[in-house]
């Protein structure tokens, strides 16, 4: 039996680079998405041309009327233990905000009851925002991570996550710290417990794990060396690495200068790139690779970008958060020209939006506002690409989801504009172009800018509706 969803379809087809997204944009106003029993796309095209079901096969039809069908959003950087931290303010920039607002908030997950509640709410917010896949920065507490994975499995969403590793820090981070040896054993046991726990095979799993040092300032050379060794042992199982890079460049006392001073490196990226052996000696194992995502990367040198491109390491671009914490603007043209995959991240709770399209909206604004020749007006297809297919690529799962190519697992959202009046009126009255292509681009831009959670009425992963 196959299931057919009828609606207005947008997706970015094939495997384009960001700059070619407009040419790869597919718009099917009278579309059909046909999904087989395994949740795989067997047809995406005009509804009148869809193949007739073979003899003896039923076709279930879901007619979404004027609804849009979009690939599921991919959030490549979101903090689970900061679910209730969206209003955290008064902390100054990054390092003060962490000490004053975030470490105390994350310490609350030591309480198992609180951890269960926050896991439930976090997952519900993901469903509401249509974030079908996410790289989730985890809690320090293993019971909270267990609650997160269990709740995610119950919902049917995809997740990659790992406990946040901290072995050194200020007094306010004390509840989140572990010894050097616990940092490794807790991470290794989380991987054993949850990596591909749903299917036993990482190539088909919805649940996957990551090694997540919070950032260089939260760990020692000892920890980084041991994590490099751990990664050597689990890389082949498809385990990920996730952390922060080059976010705050306040001179002298900010994150980047503190990293360079603490680790005696010229480049922040070096701290993750196999520089350290136990005892601080140089020459350990690198944490970079195709399954590594660096959040922010706002202030990278050309050398750092080239190294990320060379190793296949991706960037989670989080402009909502960068505005919230005064972290600056990632140079769009220079970063993409280096050949690094750039995907979108909410960075909740430095980001105060859960919806990836809100991240794309801020990306549009901040990159248009870059000075002089650096200013760029991102095409709506490039925005859609960044929030969907680029996310799948950053997660090294582009072969599995991210668009509606035949053979992909069907992750998608149903958007009903009439459920959010401002979006409905934008689409009804704001599209002026006579030209079909210009009208298409106006519709997609209005959809991405005007979308809010109430208009996302159904969310599917691998053809199955998710829920909490
Ligand atoms: N760097 C280290 N920890 C964090 C965090 O929780 N949020 C952000 N935005 N940056 C970080
Ligand atoms: Zn973050």
TrEMBL record:
Gene Ontology terms for molecular function: guanine deaminase activity; zinc ion binding
A GO cellular component term found in this entry reads: cytosol
- Could you mention a single GO BP entry for this protein? guanine catabolic process
| Residue span(s) of domain Amidohydrolase-related | 68-417
Q: Which UniProt keywords apply?
A: Hydrolase, Metal-binding, Zinc
Needed cofactors: Zn(2+)
Listed InterPro entries: Amidohydro-rel (IPR006680), Metal-dep_hydrolase_composite (IPR011059), Metal_Hydrolase (IPR032466), Metallo-dep_hydrolases (IPR051607)
What's the protein called, per UniProt?
Answer: Guanine deaminase
Q: Which organism was this protein described from?
A: Gordonia rhizosphera NBRC 16068
Instruction: Give the gene that encodes this protein.
Output: guaD
């Amino acid at each position: 039996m196959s299931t057919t969803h009828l609606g207005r379809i947008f997706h970015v087809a094939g495997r384009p680079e960001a700059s070619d997204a407009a040419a790869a944009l597919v718009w099917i106003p009278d579309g059909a998405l046909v999904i087989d029993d395994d949740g795989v796309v067997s047809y995406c095209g005009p509804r009148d041309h869809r193949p007739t079901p073979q003899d003896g096969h039923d076709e279930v039809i879901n007619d979404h009327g004027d609804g849009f069908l979009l690939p599921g959003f991919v959030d490549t950087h979101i903090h689970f233990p900061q679910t209730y931290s969206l209003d955290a303010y008064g902390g100054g920039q990054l390092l003060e905000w962490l000490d004053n607002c975030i470490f105390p908030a994350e310490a609350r997950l030591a309480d198992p009851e609180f951890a269960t509640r926050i896991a439930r709410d976090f997952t519900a917010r993901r469903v509401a925002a249509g974030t079908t896949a996410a790289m989730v920065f985890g809690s320090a507490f293993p019971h909270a991570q267990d609650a997160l994975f269990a709740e995610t499995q119950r919902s049917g969403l995809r997740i990659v996550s790992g406990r946040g590793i901290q072995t050194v820090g200020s007094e306010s981070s004390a509840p989140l710290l572990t010894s050097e040896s616990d940092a490794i054993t807790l991470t290794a046991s989380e991987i054993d417990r949850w990596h591909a726990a749903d299917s036993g095979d990482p190539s088909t799993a919805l649940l996957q794990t990551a090694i997540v040092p919070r950032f260089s300032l939260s760990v020692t050379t000892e920890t980084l060396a041991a994590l490099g060794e751990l990664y050597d042992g689990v890389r082949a199982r498809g385990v990920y690495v996730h952390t922060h890079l080059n976010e705050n460049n306040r001179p002298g006392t900010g994150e980047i200068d503190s990293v360079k001073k603490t680790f005696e490196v010229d480049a922040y990226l070096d701290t993750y790139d196999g520089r350290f052996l136990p005892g601080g000696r140089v020459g350990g194992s690198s944490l970079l690779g195709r399954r590594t995502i660096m959040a922010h990367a706002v202030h990278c040198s050309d050398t750092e970008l080239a190294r990320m491109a060379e190793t296949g390491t991706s960037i989670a671009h989080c402009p909502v958060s960068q505005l919230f914490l005064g972290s600056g603007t990632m140079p769009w043209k220079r970063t993409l020209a280096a050949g690094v995959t750039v995907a979108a991240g909410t960075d909740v709770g430095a980001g105060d939006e859960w919806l990836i399209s809100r991240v794309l909206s801020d990306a549009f604004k901040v990159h248009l506002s870059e000075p002089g020749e650096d200013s760029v007006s991102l095409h709506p297809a490039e925005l859609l690409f960044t929030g969907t297919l680029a996310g799948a690529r950053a997660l090294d799962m582009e072969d599995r989801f991210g668009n509606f190519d035949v053979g992909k697992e069907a992750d998608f959202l149903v958007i009903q504009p009439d459920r959010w009046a401002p979006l409905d009126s934008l689409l009804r009255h704001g599209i002026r172009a006579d030209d079909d292509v210009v009208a298409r681009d106006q519709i997609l831009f209005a959809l991405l800018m005007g979308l809010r959670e109430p208009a996302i009425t159904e969310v599917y992963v691998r053809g199955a509706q998710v829920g909490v």
